[in-house]
Specification:
The chain has helices at 13-23, 60-72, 85-93, 95-98, 111-116, 118-127, 143-151, 162-169, 179-191, 250-262, 295-301, 305-313, 334-346, 352-359, 374-393, and strands at residues 5-8, 29-33, 49-52, 79-82, 135-137, 155-159, 174-176, 196-200, 209-216, 222-234, 240-246, 267-275, 282-288, 321-322, 330-332, 364-365. It is an alpha/beta fold and 395 residues long. It has three domains: 5-104, Rossmann fold (3-Layer(aba) Sandwich); 134-200, Dna Ligase, domain 1; 206-362, D-amino Acid Aminotransferase, Chain A, domain 1 (2-Layer Sandwich).
């Protein structure tokens, strides 16, 4: 295949999984990062080329020009695949310029940013009849009275710009239990210059979290999709998936496909839902506008989303496919899953007897692959280095 795939962000296992999913199909993969440190994804045997670019935040214009210069030297346009929210935001900002040199799934500038913004997504979902948690803006009149009456404590203080919030606080949300904690959380966000909203917590344990992973072609029609059920997250209750199984839930396709098609979305998207333990209704929580942590498990379940995207963009679309049965495939990020298990047991949310059966299930791991071991070796070297530096500074 002549078109190269330029993959942004390979210092995390999402980029690694994209490299593997494309490389195994003979695609020339180009790993792009702002530093050669810790980008273990580029250690994959499926990585054809590695580039060090200017930083996408501190040197944004230079970064964009770097991408344009690279594409200009190619005989055919490369496919551009951002693997982190921050890369998605930058690409979306310069989408019109980059679309002249790259094949990119999204064509409408600003749509990626809209669906990633929690407040805008909430409004869009309401307009299309999608259930979303009750939400109150912090600048609304009678704010505290509305929180206590409509949302009630405990509730979550949630960023509108999730990547910036996570970069600052290393967490997705603030959970608050009273007015005092609510005010402190808002003050923290204000001090950091970040906008937040307040949202009701949908009742239900972490296994009430589900995902709808889908690819929409250039006509904004869903062609490929898979549904999954989360079981454990880290940080627990409001974190990223560390143990998730593929599970067929047709209702999620009914909800998710209609919404994505109506907003003229193109490319890959993952909608996270939570099922209300009291009513059984599914509530949309957020949309990931890039390939996600579950990617390699989705591939093993039967849908290679990066290759589906690549193939359509280069003019060789793959036949439509949906996983409409349970495959028993399980994703596990072992390193953080161990931390999560400890916290679930410590807080009494799970018992050791509930955890043990899940340990012996056959899993798709985030990093480990016996056919491609070098990224795992590089990852462990990185972790050992961090541990050594941490403890050497304390002495």
């Amino acid at each position: 295949m002549k078109n190269k795939a330029v993959i942004l962000g390979c210092n995390y296992y999402i980029g690694l999984s994209v490299i593997r999913c494309l490389g195994i199909n003979g695609v020339h993969t180009v790993a792009v990062d702002y530093s050669s440190n810790h980008n273990y994804g580029a250690e994959s045997k499926y990585c054809s080329e590695q580039l060090i670019a200017p930083h996408y935040k501190t040197d944004k214009k230079e970064f964009i020009q770097f991408l344009i210069n690279y594409a200009s030297k190619q005989s055919v346009p490369p496919v551009l695949i951002p693997c982190h929210d921050s890369y998605v935001e930058v690409i979306d900002e310069y989408l019109d310029e980059l679309n002249k040199f790259y094949l990119i799934s999204q064509k409408e500038k600003g749509l990626w940013t809209k669906v990633m913004n929690k407040e805008i997504l909430h409004r869009m979902a309401n307009e299309h009849g999608i259930n979303v948690p009750e939400t109150i803006r912090v600048d609304e009149e009678d704010f505290y009275e509305k929180v206590e009456k409509i949302i009630q404590f405990p509730c979550v203080v949630k960023p509108t710009d999730s990547p910036a919030f996570v970069a600052k606080f290393r967490r997705k949300i603030f959970k608050v239990h009273n007015r005092t904690e609510l005010q402190k959380a808002i003050d923290k966000a204000n001090k950091a210059g970040l906008e937040v909203i307040v949202q009701r917590i949908i009742p239900g344990f972490d296994d009430h979290m589900y995902t709808y992973d889908a690819y929409l072609n250039q006509s904004s029609q869903v062609t490929h999709w898979v549904t999954c059920q989360k079981h454990r997250q880290f940080p627990i209750n409001f974190g990223a998936s560390v143990y998730t199984s593929q599970k067929y839930v047709p209702e999620l396709h009914e909800i998710g496909s209609k919404f994505l098609e109506r907003i003229n979305y193109k490319g890959f998207a993952e909608i996270e839902f939570k099922k209300d333990a009291d009513t059984g209704k599914f509530y949309s929580i957020e949309i990931n506008a890039r390939i996600t942590t579950l990617n390699h498990m989705l591939y093993e379940a039967g849908v290679n989303f990066p290759f589906v995207m690549y193939s359509e963009l280069v003019g060789q679309p793959i036949e439509d496919k949906a996983i409409t049965y349970n495959t028993n495939k399980v994703f596990c990020y072992a390193f953080e899953d161990l931390l999560a298990i400890n916290d679930y047991i410590r807080t009494g949310q799970l018992s050791i007897f509930q955890v043990i059966p899940t340990i012996f299930k056959r899993k798709t791991y985030a990093i480990w692959d016996w056919k491609d071991p070098k990224p795992t070796i590089s990852f462990f070297k990185m972790m050992l280095s961090k541990v050594y530096n941490k403890y050497s500074k304390s002495y």
